[in-house]
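W.,

You were right to be curious about this one. When I first looked at the sequence I had no strong expectations either way, so I just let the prediction run and decided to look at it fresh. Below is the sequence, 111 residues in total, followed by the output.
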Amino acid sequence: IISLNGDNVNSSIYGIHEDQYGDIWVGGLNMPLTRVRGEKKIAQYDITRVSDISQLNDSVLVVVAVNGFMLLNMNTGQVDHLLKENDHLGWKGTNYISCLAIKDTHIIYME
């Protein structure tokens, strides 16, 4: 159980990331992706079931979730959801991604 700005959240936390501005991004199974600055929650995003968080470049956060991964523009809040169900031209595989690593801000490796 964690508390973000007075809200008690009962969730397993799987992703925590500190960006270049010192903001902390927290994601878990049963909570929305949350951006925290100091002790204040400054934004929540409709992204749940998070397994990993990393930063692609100065403005894009990569959020890995059970149902694919998202590119979140940290400045605008725009979310591009990639590898959603049925995005594979009829292929019925899993979209579960457990972790990622970014090399040279261009290549994303996922397991």
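Here's what jumped out at me. The chain has a mean pLDDT of 78. And, maybe more interesting for your project: The chain is about 0% helix and 50% strand.

Coffee later to discuss?

I.
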